[in-house]
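Proteins fold reproducibly. Look at a concrete instance:
___
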Amino acid sequence: MRLTGRDDQSLPRFAEWLAAAEATEPNDPNAVALATATKDGRPSVRIVLLKGWDERGFVIYTNLTGRKSLELKENPRAQLDFHWKTQRRQIRIEGRVEQVSDEEADAYFATRPRLSQAGAWASLQSQPLPDRATFEARLQEVLDRYPTEIPRPPHWSGWRTVPEQIEFWQDRDGRLHEREVFTRTPQGGWTTHLLYP
């Protein structure tokens, strides 16, 4: 095990691997599996899109009344898993979660296509839907209500996973994979070590 200090090398490596995926993955290189759990430990996982990342953490945006948000509110921990098949690589990130600021959510929401903005208002995410026509009618109501700019709904924001551990997995022949784990220390630095495949 070695100490990397505050100059964490996991973020530069993440940037490098994400850039490689963006150059080779045919669809959504920012797609990531997000795992959450209820307070009693019942797990749930789904694919979402990473929409921002920096030294503070990794950000996704969603409806705050849907299942993933409800689980994150009662059990504020998550794991992200990127898998890039063409690169034969995987990155697992786990840590606590926090809601992004209103300013961050507003700024990202403004970049979304108009139809996606309207969908954020029209969708009662994770609730039963009687038929597709009901949703499409709700969507049209939003488009009619906001003929120009669509504001961010109060029930829509982002979640940041603040990393406590990041594992880089590289496929190797014979399933003799390379695995390196970075773990945040209580002092804010990082340690790193290899894992057997």
In short: The beta strands are 2-3, 31-37, 43-49, 52-54, 57-63, 77-84, 89-99, 156-170, 178-184, 190-195. The mean pLDDT is 94. The two ends are 16 Å apart (CA to CA). The longest strand covers residues 156-170.
